[in-house]
Amino acid sequence: MLTSNQMDATFAALADSTRRAILLRLASGEASVNELAKPFRMSQPAVSKHLKVLERAGLISVGQDAQRRPRRIQPARLAEASAWLERFREFWEGGFWRLDDLLEEMKSSEHAAKRCGLRRKRP
Q1: Is 25 exposed, middle or buried, given 0-12, 13-18 or 19+ CB atoms closer than 10 A?
Q2: Is 60:73 a contact under the CB 8 Å cutoff?
Q3: Is residue 109 part of a domain?
Q4: Count of domains for the chain
Q5: How far lies 8's CA from each of 4, 12, 18, 26, 81, in Å?
Q6: Is residue 55 part of a domain?
Q7: Is residue 63 in some structural domain?
Q8: In a domain, 18, yes or no
Q9: Is 102 helix (H, G, I), strand (E, B) or coil?
Q10: Residue 69 near residue 75, CB atoms below 8 Å
Q11: Can you give the pLDDT at residue 118?
Q12: CB 95: neighbour CB atoms within 10 A?
């Protein structure tokens, strides 16, 4: 389970669109800083700063491959954040299910009223 500081670092890292794009790229396989910098209109040092934020948050790691230092995604931290968010999805879905039940009940009541000739007149 994530500590409060880890949770803060994870969501702060995910709050930036460039870092989310980097994570999407790394989801398809490891990449060097230069490979990650290509699609962005920013310098390699600027991309490196984003990578440091992702590393501190535990979302990526750095490997060693001769002269190359490829970055790779660390799915465990994302899974923990996803599990935390999942509780809220369940909460909202429960609310939607209750709303669905209420709407069905209202439709049934309206249908029954129509069958009995108790339809309300509209003004």
Answers
A1: middle
A2: yes
A3: no
A4: 1
A5: 6, 6, 18, 22, 10
A6: yes
A7: yes
A8: yes
A9: helix
A10: no
A11: 55
A12: 10
pTM across the whole model: 0.70
Domain containing residue 37: 4-76
- Asked whether the beta carbons of 59 and 13 are under 8 A apart, the reply is yes
Per-residue pLDDT of the chain (123 residues; tens, 9 = 90+): 678 888 899 999 999 999 999 999 999 999 999 899 999 888 889 999 999 999 999 999 998 877 788 999 999 999 998 888 888 877 777 666 777 777 788 787 777 777 776 555 555
- How many CB atoms sit inside 10 A of residue 26's CB? 22
Amino acid at 57: A
CB-facing half-sphere around the CA of 97: CA atoms within 13 A: 6
Is there a contact between 21 and 39 (Cβ–Cβ < 8 Å)? yes
